[in-house]
Amino acid sequence: MLSSSDFASASWELVIQVDHPSEEEQKDITLRVSGDLHIGGVMLKLVEQINIAQDWSDFALWWEQKHCWLLKTHWTLDKCGVQADAKLLFTPQHKMLRLRLPNVKTVRLRVSFSAVVFRAVSDICRALNIRRAEEVSLLKPSGEYFKKKKRKEKNNKEPIIEDILSLECSPTNSGPPVSPGLYSRTMTPTYDPINGTPASSTMTWFSDSPLTEQNCSILAFSQPPQSPEALADMYQPRSLVDKAKLNAGWLDSSRSLMEQGIQEDEQLLLRFKYYTFFDLNPKYDAVRINQLYEQARWAILLEEIDCTEEEMLIFAALQYHISKLSLSTEIQDFTNESEVDEVEAALSNLEVTLEGGKADNTLEDITDIPKLADNLRLFRPKKLILKAFKQYWFVFKDTSIAYFKNKELEQGEPVEKLNLRGCEVVPDVNVAGRKFGIKLLIPVADGMNEVYLRCDHESQYAQWMAACILASKGKTMADSSYQPEVLNILSFLRMKNRNSASQVASGLENMDMNPECFVSPRCAKKHKSKQLAARILEAHQNVAQMPLVEAKLQFIQAWQSLPEFGLTYYLVRFKGSKKDDILGVSYNRLIRIDAATGIPITTWRFTNMKQWNVNWEIRQVAIEFDQNVSIAFTCLSADCKVVHEYIGGYIFLSTRSKDQNETLDEDLFHKLTGGQE
């Protein structure tokens, strides 16, 4: 028989706190265990000792000191390294979380605190019916985000009650996490592609989901515009450094919420993190399109992205149009539609697609390399020289522009040849002033060369601008995206084109608009309310006939055409530099920007990237490019893991294909973003 001393050496006491939902205080329970007992055995002993009949299947052990979950139930205590001094908590893996969506609505739902954030987000998106969850992530807001709001609350006598949409019976609270790529046509509810209402054929889907018909309309329809006072009270970044602070709080996708210190019922922001919106389809993506539109709208209103006054008015007109349509009773009326309508819509879509192809000269397109040739004006900024444009004969072929003194000299040596691969293309347009310019920032060894081109009219500008945009990505005009790009640019220019204000003036007296709701506070201060309303209504004439979903897509498209679109900023210190710079991360490139002036210094394309890694000891990101170019920087406004994940995430998203049933390779995502060897 074992003596009492032998028994004591073979086993020991382990104190475990039980986070019981029905009791206010956590209970301590002491178990006698040995090192060879596995985690599952510990939990079994614990449940037997608690002796309360309930479903304990969601509970797991959390190790306070090591800040990790003990989820491998077949591992022994010795293998995990658990000893008598370990503080363990027996707690549910799924807990309530408040998520502030891009439309500033807060939803409260049960989320896995033990799964990695990548998987937790895919479950959240499934509950909210947002496809392509890999583009979305969770952001912990900085202190400044709610600062102004809190200041206002102090002056208010009445407490502000937040309007929260509760989805407590969410599908994220049970069962194994769902792979984010498993959304297929059969699983996803369909919507009317014109106004975004759920289609009758899938209304039964909503009865099994926490996302009822009413909740769906809250997420899929635009909310009434905020008052100018509420808008002025929200946090607005004033500089690139302020914008960099906003991006510091992205959660690590490779670790769980609990491991990152997120508390139960804490408020996080659910945002589109990666600006590559894959396969946007009005039939399946009413919620996704609306949330994207809302994220774009707030980015414009709070000046998180810069735009000209002319562009601000177009965005205002589209917002006004969308809010009018969203509030109309016709949109909210969920009517039953016949199958014939769906067939007719599919046929008309097919007709448009076929017409868009225009296959008259298909053979010619295959054999001939497309080229543009025309008279344009050019200007190179130099010190102490006035801005004078000089006319040349320009030829655009492949990804290069060559220019000659005149057309007759085209066969000879050009004055200069500009290779646009990897360059920055910035529109320099004022439609009212008939100014159609293209600003090119071309990377060279010691920085960027600045070149301005000036076109004569809209169609010339659209063709050359589209060619420049494609060339910057390493694509030629032979690419299938060239013609759609030209049409997008032309449609945006048409929206900027002002109509005669005859009908507008008459409608001003009985106008139902508060114009300050649709523009940034800074823009609102520059104009009188009536003047601003007249200009918005003037711009509205160009979009007045658009259906609701098309107007939202047009807004998203216009947002995507802004020069700063898709850039996420971080404050960094480059190796060998004595001052701080801003690093802009985009879907296809990195940009080094002067923090004081906001002027781009150098651009590096992901296509030229050979490898990147992190030195975790000194928290430094190092990247190698072709032609023996290498850079290294430390992050000052965020953890270097956040920037590393951004770069790897964009490279991961570039591997997606059009197959809707394709399961995403989660292991590849973690391999590219984890930063581990």
Automatic annotation (TrEMBL):
<dbReference type="InterPro" id="IPR019748">
    <property type="entry name" value="FERM_central"/>
</dbReference>
<keyword id="KW-0130">Cell adhesion</keyword>
<dbReference type="Pfam" id="PF18124">
    <property type="entry name" value="Kindlin_2_N"/>
</dbReference>
<dbReference type="GO" id="GO:0042995">
    <property type="term" value="C:cell projection"/>
</dbReference>
<protein>
    <submittedName>
        <fullName>Fermitin family homolog 1 isoform X1</fullName>
    </submittedName>
</protein>
<dbReference type="GO" id="GO:0005925">
    <property type="term" value="C:focal adhesion"/>
</dbReference>
<dbReference type="InterPro" id="IPR035963">
    <property type="entry name" value="FERM_2"/>
</dbReference>
<keyword id="KW-0965">Cell junction</keyword>
<keyword id="KW-0966">Cell projection</keyword>
<dbReference type="InterPro" id="IPR040790">
    <property type="entry name" value="Kindlin_2_N"/>
</dbReference>
<dbReference type="InterPro" id="IPR037837">
    <property type="entry name" value="PH_Kindlin/fermitin"/>
</dbReference>
<dbReference type="Pfam" id="PF00373">
    <property type="entry name" value="FERM_M"/>
</dbReference>
<dbReference type="InterPro" id="IPR019749">
    <property type="entry name" value="Band_41_domain"/>
</dbReference>
<dbReference type="InterPro" id="IPR037843">
    <property type="entry name" value="Kindlin/fermitin"/>
</dbReference>
<dbReference type="GO" id="GO:0007160">
    <property type="term" value="P:cell-matrix adhesion"/>
</dbReference>
<comment type="similarity">
    <text>Belongs to the kindlin family.</text>
</comment>
<feature type="domain" description="PH">
    <location>
        <begin position="377"/>
        <end position="473"/>
    </location>
</feature>
<dbReference type="GO" id="GO:0007229">
    <property type="term" value="P:integrin-mediated signaling pathway"/>
</dbReference>
<dbReference type="GO" id="GO:0005178">
    <property type="term" value="F:integrin binding"/>
</dbReference>
<dbReference type="InterPro" id="IPR011993">
    <property type="entry name" value="PH-like_dom_sf"/>
</dbReference>
<dbReference type="InterPro" id="IPR001849">
    <property type="entry name" value="PH_domain"/>
</dbReference>
